[in-house]
């Protein structure tokens, strides 16, 4: 017999119990300002639930209105709902659209087997409004569920043609503009209503409203969101792309009672509820600081508070104690936080994170120094400690953030020093940048002794890095620790000494002329490939083997800012933006990485289609044009 099964656009209710038992992470908050900030963020209606773009959730209650699709006669039950590249052959596709940061307006297009619907929502006066409009319709059903997330206290049910919820001192009723249809075969155990998708449907809380009333409220909030986008003038489309990806990936981590912005919703679901990566999250906070101070602070602080007992910010932190206790990741946190501080000048932000950042800075020379050089590594972990990857060369490559970079192919790993046998130009440069930024932070906080310590360390490693310049090649080269041989595989990290300010102007110009603008190495219609074009691994087009990455481009841009390199900087900004916009305009995608030859993001399965650091490709234009200047200037 035919049995109707839904395309339920969220993970089933059993997973809610899975998340409810997760234990909070251990983090020490020292300022009352940050506690107040998280309380402010963690309230109201928004798309808080990481497992679904179409769950509209009220905090702090945890009540959700979940939207699902039912296709009569279809035996397929799709449990996950994420935007995916065509290469994944997913039956559904979504295009997240214009939205506000705070959930006061959201819009999204859902496409599934010939059916296209456009969904808009608005939050106003503590109530939620949803408008579902068919674009290309079949006689399918939209299922509206009542949900109670994270094992929060309360009750949900159905009374007549309305869904209800009760939370002691507050009751919520969900009204609709159409009469529901009987749909006993929907694969859901939650109280729900089902509606045909052949005509517009309005859903609201608070009181019964007409379709026209709901539409008017949504139009009002949509216009406010559009006005905000338009305020950026020539950069409005770039702003919309960046703001959209960041806002849609802001979710609520219930056990820790915090709003965070993991790299994407699909990564969060895959890691059991959330995953915070080191440099990814710092970059997110930097982009947020353009337009949302609270979310910038929240992400910068939360990844810093993930510091391990051994004293480093880990590669990743996720639920159930899963943390990379063996390794860290690129040390960019102090630089990012100082840039945010320059804009808003709120000293409590520095006070909240300074001690952890100083501890992390001191960790590097104690654990990764080899004869005065710095190397990527991986420390052994205690037996029974939860970590996904073991102590080896691959784990050390993960610490670099460049998981499968050809630079580390067959590089020996020294189990006595817990490091690869490679003095890494990129790590050296980023660490010097970290020392300089943290010294500036210490000075702001009146900690002269710390500032002197950090400046001394910066000078020490700067002298070593200067010695890694190769006059014949005209660029800084990595060097084997065990054999003292130079390695000639080039990636954008070979430009990172610009970040540390160790180059002369002549060296900087030479690197641009002979390498950045060299079509055999890094230049082309799309830039900058993660390994030189003439490297044998470039053709692999696999992750860090030849593809373009937003963070690499952005770090090179930050380095270019330290020198008089106007032509190179303008070229990098224009080509990076063009790459982002090629995919954004085509499909609303902002990818984890991109094909250097075609500029496509969705040509491989290892490029998440909605990954927030892809927006760094256009963020550099905002920095260049002064949008990150101190508030009021």
From TrEMBL:
Organism superkingdom: Bacteria
InterPro entries listed in its UniProt record? 6-hairpin_glycosidase_sf, 6hp_glycosidase-like_sf, Glycoside_hydrolase_63, MGH1-like_GH
Q: Which residues, if any, are the signal sequence?
A: 1-22
Mannosylglycerate hydrolase MGH1-like glycoside hydrolase domain ranges (all copies)? 278-603
A Pfam family recorded for this sequence? MGH1-like_GH
Q: Which keywords belong to this entry?
A: Glycosidase, Hydrolase, Signal
Q: Which family does it belong to?
A: Belongs to the glycosyl hydrolase 63 family.
Name of this chain's protein: Mannosylglycerate hydrolase MGH1-like glycoside hydrolase domain-containing protein
Q: Name its species.
A: Flavihumibacter fluminis
């Amino acid at each position: 017999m035919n049995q109707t099964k839904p395309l339920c656009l969220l993970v089933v209710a059993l997973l809610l119990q899975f998340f409810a038992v997760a234990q909070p992470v251990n983090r020490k908050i020292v300022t009352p300002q940050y506690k107040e900030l998280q309380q402010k963020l963690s309230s109201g209606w928004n798309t808080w639930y990481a497992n679904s773009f179409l769950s509209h959730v009220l905090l702090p209650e945890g009540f959700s209105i979940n939207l699902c699709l039912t296709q009569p006669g279809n035996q397929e039950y799709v449990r996950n709902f994420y935007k995916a590249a065509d290469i994944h052959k997913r039956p559904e596709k979504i295009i997240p659209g214009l939205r506000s940061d705070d959930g006061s307006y959201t819009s999204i297009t859902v496409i599934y087997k010939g059916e296209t619907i456009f969904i808009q929502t608005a939050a106003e006066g503590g109530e939620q409004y949803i408008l579902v409009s068919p674009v290309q319709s079949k006689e399918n059903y939209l299922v509206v569920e009542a949900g109670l997330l994270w094992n929060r206290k309360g009750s949900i049910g159905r009374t007549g043609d309305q869904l209800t919820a009760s939370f002691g001192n507050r009751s919520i009723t969900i009204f609709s503009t159409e009469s529901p249809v009987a749909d006993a075969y929907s694969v859901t155990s939650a109280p729900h209503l089902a509606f045909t998708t052949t005509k517009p449907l309005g859903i609201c809380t608070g009181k019964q409203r007409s379709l026209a009333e709901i539409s008017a409220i949504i139009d009002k909030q949509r216009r406010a969101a559009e006005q905000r986008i338009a305020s950026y003038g020539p950069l409005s489309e770039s702003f919309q792309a960046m703001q959209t990806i960041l806002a849609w990936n802001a979710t609520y981590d219930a056990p820790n009672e915090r709003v965070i912005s993991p790299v994407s919703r699909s990564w969060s679901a895959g890691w059991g509820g959330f995953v915070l990566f080191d440099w990814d999250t710092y970059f997110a906070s930097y982009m947020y600081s353009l337009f949302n101070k609270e979310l910038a602070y929240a992400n910068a602080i939360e990844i810093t508070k993930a510091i391990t007992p051994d004293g480093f910010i880990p590669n990743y932190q996720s639920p159930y104690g899963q943390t990379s206790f063996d390794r860290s990741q690129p040390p960019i946190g102090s630089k990012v936080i100082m840039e945010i501080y320059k804009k808003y000048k709120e000293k409590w932000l520095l006070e909240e994170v300074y001690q952890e950042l100083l501890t992390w800075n001191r960790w590097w020379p104690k654990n990764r120094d080899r004869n005065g050089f710095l190397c990527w590594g991986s420390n052994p972990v205690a037996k029974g400690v939860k970590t996904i990857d073991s102590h080896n060369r691959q784990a050390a490559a993960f610490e670099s953030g460049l998981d499968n970079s050809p630079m580390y192919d067959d590089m020996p790993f020294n189990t006595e020093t817990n490091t690869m046998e490679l003095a890494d130009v990129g790590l050296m440069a980023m660490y010097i940048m970290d020392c300089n930024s943290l010294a500036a932070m210490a000075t702001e906080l009146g900690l002269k002794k710390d500032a002197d310590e950090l400046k001394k360390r910066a000078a020490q490693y700067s002298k070593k890095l200067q010695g890694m310049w190769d006059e014949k090649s005209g660029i800084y080269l990595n060097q084997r620790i065990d054999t003292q041989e130079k390695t000639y595989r080039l990636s954008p990290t070979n430009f990172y000494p610009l970040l540390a300010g160790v180059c002369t102007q002549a060296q900087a110009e030479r690197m641009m002329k002979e390498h950045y603008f060299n079509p055999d190495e890094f230049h082309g219609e799309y830039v900058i490939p993660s390994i030189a074009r003439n490297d044998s691994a470039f053709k692999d087009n696999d992750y860090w083997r030849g593809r373009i990455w937003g963070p690499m481009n952005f770090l090179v841009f930050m380095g270019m800012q330290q020198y008089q390199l106007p032509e190179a900087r303008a070229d990098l900004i224009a080509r990076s933006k063009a790459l982002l916009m090629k995919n954004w305009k085509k499909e609303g995608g902002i990818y984890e990485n991109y094909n250097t030859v075609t500029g496509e993001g969705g040509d491989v399965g290892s490029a998440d289609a909605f990954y927030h650091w892809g927006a760094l490709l256009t963020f550099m234009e905002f920095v260049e044009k002064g949008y990150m200047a101190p508030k009021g200037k």
